[in-house]
Every structure is written in C-alpha cells, then in structure tokens.
Design goal:
By secondary structure, this protein is an alpha+beta fold. 47% of the residues lie in helices and 15% in strands. Residues 226-415 form the Tyr recombinase domain.
Length: 435
C-alpha cells in the first residue's frame, strides 16, 4: 500500500525544507521538497509541524491538504497508464497549491526567452506581409527587456506568471522602473509595451493570461518634454566642408551625409552596398526593404555630393556602436559646439539625464533619419516624405519630428504649389504662342 510521509533532514538551528516522500513499492520511492519549511524546534514526533502557533496550525493544514491530494490523485492515476515517478509527484505538489513550475511556459520571463530562442522561425506580419524571423534589433530589444524584467524578479525574490500581470502588478512594476531604477518616462513606457506584446503573443498560443494584460496602457514623454536633435542643411554643409584627417572619420562622414539624405534607420543604412542603388533614365534611386516594418521604399538620390559619394567613395562597413561614437567626433571637428538643451546617458549611472551640452555630444545615429524628415518638412508635401521614411500615419510622423500639425502652413504650401503650377502653365502657353 502506498504511503506518504513528511520529514526534515536537518537539526540545524535554522529553518529547513520539509520533504514529501511517496512510497508505492520497494523500488518506487520518490522524495522532493514540498515547498514549505520550518524550524526543527517546531517539528513534531508525528512528522507533522507542532500546532502551538498560528503558523504551525496553517502549515499543518497545508501538509494535510497535500497528503489528501496526493492520495486522491494516486488512486485516480494508478487506474490508468500514467507513470508514477518524481515528475508526477512534483506536478501533484504544484497542482495542489496552484503553483507554477519554474520551467513552465506560464512563467513570463521563460516565455520571453522562448521568443528569443525561436526568433529565427517566428512569423512576423510587416506591412501586410508575413515574414519569417525577427529582426536583429527586435531580438536585441527582447534581450534587453528580459534582463530588466529578470532584475525585477530578483528584487522581489520570485518569478512572475502570466496570471499575475494585472493592474496592481503593472503599477508596482512601473514604480520600480521610475523610482528604483530611475529610468526615463519613455523608456519605462516601452517596457509596458513589451509586456503587453508578450502577453498577447502568449494568449494567441493558448497560454492563460490575465485579462488586464491585453489592455495595458503605456505612456511617453509629452511633446514639451522631448528634446530632439537634428542636423540642419547649414550644419551638414559644415560637416561636409570640415577638414578631417583620418580615413576612418572620413568614412563616418560619408555615412552621415548619406544617412541624412536617404532617411533610413541606422540598421538599414549601415547594411547598404553600392549594388543597392540603380539608375533609371539617367536618374539614381535606392530601393530599401525596411527591416523594422517590412516596407519597400524607393528613395530618389538628388544632391550631387551624395551621388558622388555613391559612385566614387562609397563608405565601408562599420559597427553600429563604433559609428555612433565617431559621429560625435565628426560633429565636434565640424564645429557643432553650440550649447543646447538635451538628454544624454551618464556613464556613471547608466541613465539618461537632462542638461545643457555641446551639440556634438548629443548627436547619434538616429539623428540622421530625423534630420531628413525635419529638414524637408513643409518644403515637401508630408505624404511624399512619408513614402520615403516609411511612416504610415501623419500623426506618427509629426510626433517623430516633434511638430504639431500647422493647418495654415499646410494651406500656404498648397497655395504655393498651385501658384507654381499656374505659372508653369502660363509659361508653356506663352512659349506655344510665340512659336
């Protein structure tokens, strides 16, 4: 007959684990931690905790509950082909108290790791098309997010399951991000977006999630609190005309000038090769399949100095981090030393801090794409700019360059385009008449 016993293995003057031991035959003896612990002084001779305190009574009740549960489950499973072993016993313990095993996919951080491990075969919908495999940047973002989330789990000394991701949890996690870790508002908001994304993915894969996880609200800095750095046409001329000594910095400058005229993310920019450009009817074009959103865009190459770079001095491949560091050096050499308000990472705290800095210190790879959008805004109709940057919504584009929609300015631009069109018609008519 099967027997179930509880015992402790140590008489040390400290709390020790309570073991549960199941014996179904001479060769079928299994033992593991019950998940409970007690001090040896509180352990009775009957192999149950003494009931001389509230904690002891509660522990006694839990162990009795587990004993009854295992007996019932054993009677049920021995009548089937279920294998009774240590794994079976572990599942009984977890099921009895609705625990989630650390190796279970119901653990949130484990599921994030599952996404990372299977990144190359995951289906992703981009621009209405299904593609296989996550982008490098997406994988990097998942890894960074998992590191932060795991640090939170360490701070609270336990792992989080999907069913725990409710509104109170989100409030506690947000407070930890902002107050304990001193992350910026937008960066903290991105982590909430990631939690929601992971929960929705788990839900699609039939993993039970808390209903609140599907409606988590993120946040970001207001427009008034955002500090965006761009390089104006005049500043780009300074960069182009600067006297630069080393070949490496000249190479970085070419990437910079190219990036400010093709408006692509740094991940797409630094992967470009000369063969990605094409001529049609004597005009130069670039076709890009944007990795992040999966959009195919075509960029006209117009400025003579950019055409010259592409044809005669195409930049060599460079590491993203190295490029990001050397951009600042190029801007410093070009004399972009004016003091401006902005944010940059403090290497001592590893946190972004607001302050007044020389502009060259605030220029990064992402400023190139944003410079294009800012420089040509209100010079070129916004829908045309969006076909090059890859933005789908004008509202998103305007947030990107930190602009509010100016209806009067849009009307003035429309008036100018119509007037230019009318003048062109009149000029053509005059030419026809005079001929």
């Amino acid at each position: 007959m099967a027997s179930i016993q509880f015992r402790i293995r140590s008489k040390a003057n400290k709390h020790v684990a309570i073991k549960v031991r199941l014996s179904i035959s001479r060769s079928g003896v299994f033992e593991l931690n019950s998940g409970f612990n007690t001090h040896p002084d509180n352990w009775g001779k009957n192999n149950f905790p003494k009931q001389n305190s509230e904690d002891g009574k509660k522990l006694f009740s839990n162990l009795k509950k587990l004993e009854t549960f295992i007996h019932a489950k054993l009677n049920e499973d021995q009548g089937s082909e279920t294998v009774i072993n240590s794994y079976w016993l572990e599942k009984c313990v977890n099921d009895c108290f609705n625990r989630v095993s650390a190796s279970d996919s119901n653990i949130f951080s484990n599921y994030v790791q599952h996404i990372i491990d299977n990144a190359s075969t995951r289906k992703v919908k981009r621009a209405g098309k299904i593609k296989i495999g996550l982008s490098k940047n997406t994988i990097k973002n998942y890894r960074m997010f998992k590191n932060v989330f795991t640090r939170y789990e360490v701070s609270i000394k336990r792992q989080i399951s999907f069913m725990e991701i409710n509104n109170p949890f989100i409030e506690r996690f947000t407070t930890w991000l902002l107050n304990n870790e001193n992350y910026g508002v937008s960066y903290a908001g991105k982590h909430l977006d990631m939690i929601k994304t992971v929960c929705l993915d788990a839900d699609r894969n039939e993993i039970r999630v808390h209903p609140h996880s599907k409606v988590i609200q993120s946040f970001r800095k207001t427009d008034d609190d955002r500090y965006i750095q761009t390089l104006s046409f005049e500043e780009l001329d300074k960069v182009r005309e600067a006297i630069i000594e080393t070949e490496e910095l000249k190479n970085v400058r070419n990437w910079m000038l190219l990036g400010c005229e093709i408006a692509q993310r740094s991940g797409d920019l630094l992967e470009l090769k000369p063969e990605d450009f094409r001529y049609k009817n004597g005009l130069l074009y670039l076709d890009v399949d944007q990795e992040k959103v999966g959009k195919d865009v075509t960029v006209p190459i117009i400025k003579p100095h950019i055409i010259k770079i592409i044809e005669n001095d195409f930049p060599k491949q460079i590491n993203y981090d190295r490029f990001n560091d050397l951009i600042k050096v190029v801007c410093q050499v070009a004399g972009l030393t004016q003091i401006v308000e902005g944010e940059k990472r403090n290497p001592l705290t590893n946190r972004v801090e607001f302050g007044r800095y020389p502009k060259w210190e605030l220029i990064s790879t992402h400023c190139l794409r944003r410079s294009f959008a800012t420089n040509y805004y209100m010079r070129i109709p916004t829908p045309l700019l969006m076909t090059i940057t890859g933005h789908s919504k004008e509202s998103t584009f305007l947030v990107y360059i930190n602009k509010r929609q100016d209806k009067d300015a849009n009307a003035d631009l429309f008036r100018k385009l119509v007037q230019d069109w009318e003048r062109e018609k009149i000029t053509k008519l005059q030419v026809i008449r005079s001929s």
